[in-house]
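In this section we turn from sequence analysis to structure. A common task in structural bioinformatics is to predict how a protein folds when a small molecule is present, because the ligand can shape the pocket around it. The inputs are simple: the amino acid sequence and a SMILES string for the ligand, here copper (II) ion. Study the lines below before reading on.
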Amino acid sequence: MWRETVVVILIAQSARGSDGHAGHDHSAQVPSTLQPRSDFVEVAKAAGKVQVIGVSPEFWSAMPSSPTSYTVPTGTALTFRFSMEHNLYLMGSKAAYDSCDLSDSIELAGMHIHGGEAGQPPNLYEVVMTTAGTYYMTCHVAGHCGSGQKITVNVVDSGNPPPSPSPGPPSSGGSGCGGGCIGGIVGGSFVPLLVLVLWLGGAFGAKCPSPLRPPAKAAEPSKAVVTAASAA
Ligand SMILES: [Cu+2]
């Protein structure tokens, strides 16, 4: 089902044409869809939506890049790890990508942004892709694009809203309680034992009624009133 959805979206994407960027921005500002928001990154990681670019030990530093193409759903965090001999730029178009024309490219991460974990390349750049489209990325160091250090990232609409740092169990949806309700909360970021204690104490109210404390009168009476009224 998910696979089919991706295929459909990909077809729709290609039918739309290769130039997914309407109007190139020459002000050299990083587009708002590529802001490296750490709070977005945390949400994506908590949901397991992470795409590491390249493979250990070189990751993004490898020339040529391998793989050269990625397809991820919106809300995915891209993770670039690289040495201080490389950087990361967003290219303006597929034509620029194909010809390694760097004139219209925008810096996403410099050679000395640091942040890499111990035992990993020194630079770490993470960004959540919030908007569907095709993104072309390369390294701006002379000759590196020509040596194949460049990737295409196809971001497809996941159908889920963009990541939000607001609290609450992600995508559990639904309004009722049911068996999955308390499980979803316990499985979330709260301390499970504390949640369990709160639940048993009836702290979640009617939405997740405690088995020890049955909720007071449910909403049934009001429904009955409405039915009676409409029947009259
Ligand atoms: Cu490079």
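The first strand starts at residue 50 and ends at 52. As an exercise, try to locate the residues that line the copper (II) ion site and compare them with your own expectations.
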